[in-house]
Amino acid sequence: MRKLIATALCLAATVTATGCGATVEKPADAESTAVTLTNCGRKVTYDKVPERVVTNDVGITELMFALGLEDRMAGFAMPDDKGDMTGVPWKDGYDRVKWLSKDQLTKENVLDARADLVFAGWNYGFREDSGFTPDALKKLGIPSYVLTESCRNGRTESSRGIMPPLDALYADLTNLGKLFGVEQRAARLIAEFKKEIASVRDKAPASRPKVFLYDSGQDQPFTSGRYAAPEQIISEAGGVNVMHDVQDSWTTVGWESVVERDPDVIVICDYGDVSAEQKKKFLLSYAPLRHVTAVRHKRIFVLDYVDLVESPRNPSAIARLGAYLRTVAEER
C-alpha cells in the first residue's frame, strides 16, 4: 500500500492477556537447529533462530509483539504517527524496540541494525522499484520472511494473496511460533482468535449487508479484493465484501463497479494524510455515488489501518464491525 499511518486501538481483553510479556518457550539447542517453513508456497530453511529481527509496518511488528518476541528484535520501520499508544497491549514492545525508520526499510538501515532476519511483505516494505527485495537481501547474507497476506499469486505481475486472509494470519503465527520456539503460545493465540471470531459469526444477521471497503482515491477507489484482510473481517462480521470476486489483495477498481454493486455500508480505512472525516465527506458528496444505499443512508463505518491489514488486531476489528452490521440489518 501507499505510505502507511496507523492509529493504535486496544485489542479485546483475551488478546491482551496472551500477547504481553511472556517468556520465550525456547526449545533445547534452538540456536543450532535449522528450521524449515513454508512461506508463500516455497520451502525456506533458516539455519538458526534469529536474534536481530527487523520488521516493516505496524501489523507485522505487532505480530512479533503478540508472540512476546520483542527481545528477538533489532528494530522496526513505520510512519511517524502510530497514534495514541496508551491502550495498546504491546506498548512495552514499542518502548523496548528501536524505531529505525519513519518511512520504510532500506538496505542501509537493515545493515546498520545488523539484522539477521527481515520480516516484511510485498508493498509492506519489499518493493522492486527500490531493489529492496528478499533476493537482494539474500545476496547480503540476510534471510527474510514474507508476510503471507502479501504473497504474489501469479495472476498478474503484482497481484497478491494465496489464501483466505485469516488463514494467512494463522499461517504466519504458526510459522513464527515454530521458528522462534514459541509454538504453544502461537497455538493459544490462534485458538483465542478463532473463539472470539466464532462468537461474532454466531450473531451474524440472516440478511447480510453488502460492504465496500474504501481505502483512498478519488478518480478510482483503492479497495480490498478477496485476499486482503478486509475480506474476512467483513464476512466474519456478518457482511459481504462487494469486491469478493477480485482475485487480489489491495487493488484499484472503478467507481462504476461500486455503484453497480450498491453496498449497504462503506467501511473507511483510516490512515494517511487524508483523515477519515475528509474521506467520509468526499464519499457523501461524490455525485456518482448519490444513489448508492450506503451513501443515501449515511452508513459509513471507520476502522484503522492496523485493523485492516494482517495483524493481531483483526479479531477485535471483526467484533466491532459485527456489532455495527447487526444494527444495520435491524434497520433494513
Give an account of the 3D structure.
The structure is a single chain. The protein has 332 residues and is α/β, with parallel strands linked by helices. 36% of the residues lie in helices and 17% in strands. The protein has 13 helices and 14 strands. The protein has helices spanning 13-19, 58-66, 91-96, 107-112, 134-139, 165-180, 183-201, 229-237, 255-261, 276-285, 293-296, 305-308, 314-331; strands at residues 35-39, 42-46, 53-56, 73-77, 99-101, 117-122, 125-126, 144-146, 210-214, 222-224, 240-241, 250-252, 265-270, 300-304. Strands 3, 4, 5, 6, 7 and 8 form a 6-stranded parallel beta sheet that branches. α8 packs across α13. The longest helix is centred in the middle third of the chain and has 19 residues, at 183-201. Mean pLDDT is 90; it is low at 1-24.
Give the SSE layout.
Layout: H1 13-19, E1 35-39, E2 42-46, E3 53-56, H2 58-66, E4 73-77, H3 91-96, E5 99-101, H4 107-112, E6 117-122, E7 125-126, H5 134-139, E8 144-146, H6 165-180, H7 183-201, E9 210-214, E10 222-224, H8 229-237, E11 240-241, E12 250-252, H9 255-261, E13 265-270, H10 276-285, H11 293-296, E14 300-304, H12 305-308, H13 314-331
Parallel strand pairs: 3-4, 3-6, 4-5, 6-7, 6-8, 9-11, 9-13, 13-14
Antiparallel strand pairs: 1-2, 10-12
Helix pairs in contact: 1-7, 6-7, 7-13, 8-13
- Note the gap between the termini: 34 Å
**Secondary structure: number of strands:** 14
Number of helices: 13
How helix-rich are the residues, as a percent range?
25-40%
Shape estimate: globular
List segments where confidence is low: pLDDT < 50 over at least 5 consecutive residues. Answer: 1-24
What percent strand? 15-25%
Structural class assignment: alpha/beta
Cα Rg: 20 Å
Largest sheet: 6 strands, parallel
Secondary-structure element pattern, one letter each: HEEEHEHEHEEHEHHEEHEEHEHHEHH
User: What is the overall pLDDT average?
Assistant: 90
